[in-house]
Structure to design on (189 residues):
């Protein structure tokens, strides 16, 4: 068997402690790790190295995480690279902005373990990761399905947000795994 190619991650964050921590962790987990201190450096490395995935902070000097994502999306070379956001503050307005930019992984620092973050990032590197979809809770079999759920509705039992459908392609098969999940607090129904 040939050895699997290492996934290449670019970590962009201006906080030295956080950035160095993630650099170490992803190195230990077998990733090829690149790092940048802000969006400008991030863009430079992303276009030169074409990483398999990017993990970026939001607030940074010179160019912030959102500007970084927009710039990546405008470039044909980099627009397919999956990006996860690492939010230090977990602000709702940032989550909305991320959603508008099509970012499916909005990770709030301190709310999940570092191993869970690594797993989320790993799944992004495989066939682009999972897809988050909204659906009509009144169409087709949705009302019938709702009756089987905790609380009998599609609202998150934790925070009342309407849940979404997260589908993950199974490698090399035309099949998908689907779960109902809260986009706000990540609870799975
Ligand atoms: Zn929730």
């Amino acid at each position: 068997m040939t050895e699997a190619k290492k996934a290449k991650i670019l970590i962009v964050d201006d906080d030295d402690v956080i950035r160095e921590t993630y650099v170490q962790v992803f190195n230990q987990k077998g990733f090829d790790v690149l790092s940048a201190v802000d969006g400008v450096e991030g863009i430079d490395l992303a276009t030169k190295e074409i990483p398999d995935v990017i993990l970026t902070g939001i607030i940074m000097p010179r160019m912030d995480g959102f500007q970084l994502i927009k710039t990546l999306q405008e470039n044909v070379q980099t627009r397919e690279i999956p990006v996860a956001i690492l939010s230090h503050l977990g602000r709702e307005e940032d989550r909305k902005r991320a959603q508008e930019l099509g970012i499916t992984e909005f990770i709030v620092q301190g709310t999940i373990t570092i191993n869970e973050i690594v797993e989320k990032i790993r799944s992004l590197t495989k066939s682009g990761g999972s897809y988050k979809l909204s659906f009509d809770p009144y169409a087709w079999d949705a009302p019938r399905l709702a009756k089987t759920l905790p609380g009998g509705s599609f609202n998150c039992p934790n925070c009342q947000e309407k849940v979404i459908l997260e589908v993950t392609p199974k490698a090399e098969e035309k099949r998908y795994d689907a779960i109902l999940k809260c986009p706000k607090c990540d609870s799975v129904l």
Remarks:
- The beta strands are 8-12, 32-36, 53-56, 83-87, 105-108, 131-133, 164-169, 176-181.
- Residues 16-28 form the longest helix (13 residues).
- Helices lie at 16-28, 39-49, 65-74, 92-100, 114-125, 142-147.
- Residues 156, 158-159, 161, 182, 184-185, 187 surround zinc ion (CB under 6 Å).
